[in-house]
Amino acid sequence: MRALFLLTLLSLFCFSADAQTDAAQQQTINYLKINGTQTQYEAAFDQMVGLIKNQFEGSGVPASQWEKLEAKKSEAVSGIVNMLASVYRSYFEETDIQNLYTHYSSSPEQQRANQNTFINSATGQKLVAVQQSLIQNISAASESWSRDLYMDTINELKALGYTPKQQ
User: Fold this and answer.
1) Could you give the dihedral angle defined by the CA atoms of residues 10, 12, 13 and 14, in that order, rounded to the nearest 10 degrees?
2) DSSP3 helix / strand / coil % (the chain, rounded to 5)
3) Distance, CA of 86 to chain centre
4) Which residues of 51-75 are buried (b: 16+ CB within 10 A; e: fewer)?
5) φ and ψ at 4, to 5 degrees?
6) DSSP string of 96-127?
7) Interatomic CA distance for residues 142 and 84, integer angstroms
8) What backbone torsions phi and psi does residue 130 show, to the nearest 5 degrees?
9) What pTM was estimated for this model as a whole?
């Protein structure tokens, strides 16, 4: 009976920890949506598709194949946003993410008016302190994402028998 009680207690703790982790991840994703990160990667995806279309111009890739590629946009962007959320969470606590969300979800006028207060806050100071390292890790994740996405797409088209133009 005691073992059953301990097992139940342990299970509740694990589920609670998972729920907190999921909530923290979602909160970070929400922050990345309002700060323009998701929109930035949606545009990057579109630019990559344009680049690849140009490279395969005249090789007979049907419109349906491009549509399949474009249908992967949501999943691909979601992947990088999740990756970046993990990067942010390695630097910031949940309260910091909430503070970042609150600051950057306010109007541009409010952001300017509160800029000094925000920068002098614990979260602002942490942001300043980790900024270079954060940028490096974001850049590494971004490069990995774009390289893998590009190469996977090129290789998929080649496997289907399409050949890119010679550069």
Assistant:
1) 90
2) 85, 0, 15
3) 8
4) ebeebbeeeebeeeeeeebeeeeee
5) -65, -40
6) HHHHHHHHHHS-HHHHHHHHHHHHHSHHHHHH
7) 8
8) -100, 0
9) 0.81
pLDDT digits (tens, 9 = 90+) for 32-89: 999 999 999 999 999 999 999 999 999 999 999 999 999 999 999 999 999 999 999 9
Tokens of 16: 């609670």
Q: How many C-beta atoms surround the C-beta of residue 103 within 10 A?
A: 21
The phi and psi torsions of 139 (rounded to 5 degrees) equal: -60, -45
Contacts with 148 (C-beta within 8 Å, 6 or more apart), sequence order: none
Structure tokens at 151: 């190469």
